[in-house]
Design a protein that fits this description.
Elements lengths: L1 H14 L4 H10 L3 H5 L3 H34 L3 H41 L3 H7 E6 L2 E6 L2
Antiparallel strand pairs: 1-2
Helix pairs in contact: 2-5, 4-5
Length: 144
Amino acid sequence: MKKLLIIPLLWVSLLAAVNPTRAMLYSALIPGGGQVYNKAYVKAGIVVGLQAWNVGRVFYNDAKADDFAKKKKLATDAYYIQYYQDRADEHKEKRTSDIWWIGVTAVLSVLDAYVDAHLADFDSEKERVRLRFEEGKAGLELVF
């Protein structure tokens, strides 16, 4: 039911003027949501891909850490006990690193959506500023 509510919400928001706070909130709640709101579909795909990759790595490294912990319990040789412990610790560190990367990509996605929403009307603003040359002088003209 929630999925059915999110999709119309995104379509309605695409028709409205771009609001930086709304873009930021969409990006914080849904990976790539702020980018879709800003009509930056390639960026949204990149964000979703990075988040999915990092989440997949978390699950992979967590499973590997559990596997090596189980092997350690079954091992009888001191060498193998230490080897399995080292591998389990290595995968736990990788899992922690991947969790941090999830946070980093989420924060960068939120910042990107916020800045991109602020710059959404940049092209129309750029057309209001004109460079004028008169009698050997250069000047800027701002049209209101």
